[in-house]
Amino acid sequence: MLVELKIPEVGESIQEAVLAQWLKKDGDFVEKDEPVYVIETDKVTLEVPSESSGILHILVQEGETVPIGKTVGTIDSEAKAETGKSDTKKPAEKAAKPKEKAAPEPPKIPEPVPEKPSPPADKPSTPLSMMPSVRRLVKEKGVDAGRIQGTGPGGLITKGDVTLYLESAPQDRPTEPAPTEQKAAAASECAEVSEAVTRKPMTPIRKRIAKHLLAAKQNTAMLTTFNEIDMGQVMDIRNRYKDSFFKTYNARLGFMSFFIKATVAALKEFPDINGRIEGEDLIHHHYYHIGIAIGAEKGLVVPVIRHADQKSFAELETAIVEFVDKIKTNKLALTDLEGGTFSITNGGVYGSLMSTPILNMPQSGILGLHKIEDRPVVIDNQIKIRPMMYVALSYDHRIVDGKAAVTFLRRIKEFMETPERMIMEI
Length: 426
Known about the structure:
The protein has helices spanning 81-101, 132-141, 159-168, 179-192, 204-219, 232-249, 256-269, 313-328, 402-417, 420-424; strands at residues 2-6, 16-22, 29-30, 35-40, 45-49, 54-58, 65-67, 71-76, 222-230, 275-278, 281-284, 290-292, 294-296, 299-301, 304-305, 342-346, 365-369, 372-379, 382-396. By secondary structure, it is an alpha+beta fold. Strands 9, 12, 15, 16, 17, 18 and 19 form a 7-stranded mixed β-sheet that branches. It has a 4-stranded antiparallel β-sheet with strand order 1-8-6-3. A 4-stranded antiparallel β-sheet has the order 5-4-2-7, with no helix packed on it.
């Protein structure tokens, strides 16, 4: 019985996908629910499991774009694992047979190599008898290569041969070529050097990212405001409780959960930043779905933590780890990316000191985090070294006023520098 492997539906708006990779080879035996191939759409990358055990037969090759529902392979469910194994051995056995039948070749007696005579003076040396660097030297010096005796392997002319010729027979050298001839020679040399380039089509995800970011620049009145945060208090809390936190929740206490808590608290005070524009209407969300930008191999994705205001620090950290694992294993679902009301991106993990994040449409705000760096700051009229982080808020000026944006970012600063405010909600 043949079981068809079809491109699954991954969303109403998605009509086609790229068969990015086969995880098994044609003729391999696969188990039921074992990942067989990877598809890539303009939003997600997914591993597709087999619906039955059996021998795989591939119908569509990697890299092809196929419509949703198309059959890309079949599974022979009546075939056994041993059949698959025996099939895989056949190529190796076939490859070994010629070696057994091949008779040993008789040893070859090396023939004496006659001494290479000097080339005649009127026959110039061919370009193949010189290395490119030697050829350039010959052209620079204006030497007739046919007059040089090559001492390298097979009569190859070396730099030493050219130098020896110049020193021993300067009177035979022709005059230097004219400047125009030198330019022509240089151009010829440049043409011989290949400048390698690689051209490949953009992946659907990269196309989607490019289109989305360009639309954000063209269709919003995006503006960015900056501030800096003293991370000393949060770092102190994290260092004191990270071990017990991990033992209790089996999750690492990071800075992102603090920023999510501070962001949600600030969004409650400034609902416009948690809203969006739809046509000529302003939509205010009374829930807090926070998107967390995560860098993946094929591009940046922003999975959404739903109802972040109702989650604990441990639940937030666990959700982020689960998203990272899904991205690595190509199991991120389309529903994981939808419905966000505000986003946070952390360029600090890559060493970014300051940047301007781009809005994740149709959202009206995105918070950019950066690396923590010890810097001198004035505290109580004294200069002290503190762990500081620059933060940036990009917002849609059509819905968010500058005063609200600046105050919003300042509130996040207050929450992070005095974390007890988030607990007391003051």
